[in-house]
C-alpha cells in the first residue's frame, strides 16, 4: 500500500492511497483548493475598512453628548456661583452669631458678679427700717422725761419688724424648749437631771438658733435633761 501527501496553502492532508483510487484523490484535492480560496475571500471581505467622509471635528460638533457637556458646564458654573454666595452668607451669619454669643456671655458674667455683690440688697433695704427704729428708741431713752413703758413698747415694735423681715426672707427661728434633743439643730451645753421632763429633752434654751431656707445658720444652744442617778 502506498500513500501520497497533499499540501494546501495553510495545511497538509495525508490521505492513504490505493492504486485504484487515483481519480478520487484528484477530485478531493481540487475540492480542498476551492474551499481554501473561499476562506481567503471571506477573510479579505471581513478585513475591509469602512471609511467615513465626516471628519472627527464634524462628528464632535454633531454629537448630542457634546451639547449636553456644554450645558452641564454652564449649569455647574451657575451652581458654583450659588454655592459661593451661600457660603459667604453662612460665614457672615456665623460671625454675627459668634459676636452675639460673646455679648451674652459677657452680660451673664456681669450679672453674676452683680448678683454676688448685691445679693443682700433687698435684705439690707428691709433691715434699714429696723435700724431706724432702734436709733429712735435710743434717742427716746436719753430724754429727761423718758417713759420706760414707752421704751419697752417701742422695743417690742422693733422686734416685730425684725421678725417680719426674717419671715420674708425665710429665716426660721429655732426655740426648741420642751422638744426632744436634735443633734442636727441643737447644741447641748450641759445635761442635768429633771423630773419634769423625760430624758434627752430640752429643758432650757440659752441661745436661739436659726435656719435659712432649711439650712442651719446657727444651732440653738440648749440644756438637755438626763436620767436621774
UniProtKB/TrEMBL annotation:
One cellular component term from this protein's GO annotations in UniProt? cytosol
Compartments annotated for it: namely: Cytoplasm
**Gene Ontology MF annotations:** adenyl-nucleotide exchange factor activity; protein homodimerization activity; protein-folding chaperone binding; unfolded protein binding
What organism is the protein native to? hydrothermal vent metagenome
Q: What is the lineage of its organism?
A: unclassified sequences, metagenomes, ecological metagenomes
Family in the record: Belongs to the GrpE family.
Protein name as it appears in the record: Heat shock protein GrpE
Query: What InterPro entries does this protein map onto?
Result: GrpE, GrpE_CC, GrpE_head
UniProt keyword annotations, A-Z: Chaperone, Cytoplasm, Stress response
Residue ranges of the region described as Disordered: 45-71
Amino acid at each position: 500500500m502506498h500513500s501520497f501527501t497533499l499540501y494546501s496553502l495553510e495545511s497538509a492532508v495525508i490521505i492513504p492511497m490505493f492504486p485504484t483510487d487515483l481519480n478520487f484523490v484528484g477530485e478531493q484535492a481540487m475540492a480542498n483548493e476551492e474551499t481554501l480560496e473561499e476562506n481567503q475571500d471571506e477573510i479579505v471581505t471581513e478585513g475591509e475598512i469602512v471609511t467615513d467622509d465626516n471628519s472627527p471635528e464634524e462628528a464632535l460638533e454633531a454629537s448630542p453628548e457634546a451639547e449636553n457637556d456644554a450645558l452641564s458646564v454652564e449649569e455647574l458654573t451657575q451652581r458654583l456661583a450659588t454655592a459661593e454666595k451661600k457660603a459667604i452668607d453662612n460665614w457672615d451669619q456665623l460671625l454675627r452669631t459668634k459676636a452675639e454669643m460673646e455679648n451674652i456671655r459677657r452680660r451673664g458674667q456681669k450679672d453674676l458678679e452683680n448678683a454676688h455683690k448685691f445679693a443682700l440688697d433687698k435684705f439690707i433695704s428691709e433691715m434699714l427700717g429696723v435700724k431706724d427704729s432702734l436709733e429712735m428708741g435710743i434717742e427716746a431713752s436719753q430724754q429727761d422725761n423718758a417713759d420706760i413703758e414707752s421704751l419697752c413698747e417701742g422695743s417690742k415694735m422693733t422686734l416685730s419688724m425684725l421678725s417680719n423681715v426674717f419671715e420674708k426672707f425665710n429665716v426660721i427661728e429655732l426655740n426648741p424648749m420642751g422638744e426632744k434633743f436634735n443633734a442636727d439643730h441643737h447644741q447641748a451645753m450641759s445635761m442635768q437631771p429633771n423630773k419634769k421632763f423625760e430624758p434627752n429633752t430640752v429643758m432650757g434654751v440659752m441661745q436661739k438658733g436659726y435656719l435659712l431656707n432649711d439650712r442651719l445658720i446657727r444651732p440653738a444652744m440648749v440644756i438637755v435633761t438626763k436620767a436621774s442617778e
